[in-house]
Amino acid sequence: MLTFFTTPKAFHGHIGTIQRNALKSWIQLDPRPEVLMMGDDPGVLETAQEFNFKHCPLKTPAGQVPLLSDIFQTAYKEASYDYLCFINTDIILLDDFMPAFHKIRQKFTKFLMISSRWNLDIAEILPLESPDERTQLRQKAVQKHDMYPAGGSDYFVFHKSMFHDIPPLLLGRGYWDNWLMYQAKQEQAAVIDVTYDVIAVHQNHDYSHIQGLQAGERDAGLVFKAQQGRQNLQLAGGQKNIYTNYDADYVMMSSNIYSSWNIKFIVRRLKSSIRRLKLRLLSN
Prior knowledge:
Layout lengths: L1 E5 L6 H14 L7 E5 L5 H8 L2 E3 L11 H11 L4 E5 L3 E2 L4 H11 L3 E4 L2 E4 L10 H14 L10 E5 L16 H11 L3 E4 L6 E4 L17 H5 L1 H9 L14 E4 L2 E4 L6 H18 L1
């Protein structure tokens, strides 16, 4: 079994709508995961109770950004299972997620499962109860083909033996996801990119919650340039520790798991290796 943990924003307006869509999708997964909803923003406790999820307060002072380290430590304490999935609360998962997880768990014990996200504009509560409805949403995301670049992932599946020494990275302010990919490799875990098989639907939203950005701003690139983004980059150890999905050791395609040095993926792995060499040279 698998424990999800997530840190929702307040359940207001558009953000509240898309977060409810994400939660609805998770309860359709088979087997249904345990879900920990963390934080004390308005509506989080009540929504956790509505979905029969476990609510976990965080020690973050009011008005401050949660630290990744606090979130993970809380998950390790509260989770019932050894495998965990840290996931952003705007991500809809579909029927392809659990089969990919089980396939990987059969082959590896220590791993980090990641993927790029598929962006969609969604403004209403979605019907996700039937397999046909979920298939239609998957097809819509693939047809639009607005996939976020390989620089980030919105969920991370891993064994709870990992990530016990996390710098004070601010959640959602950029680079923390790239650091997790870097750290997984330092801990000798297999990093596996499942983008080809798992369509993780990201519901587009603005970034007005980021300090220094304006209401309605939807350019995710500005998050990295903001002051808190630059702070996270420094805490992560600089660009040399910023890994992407292209740094993955393995790639899943059509339920098969290939080395990323396989001829199918050699170009992306070479690009990653050249980028990493340049960064090492620049840091010397």
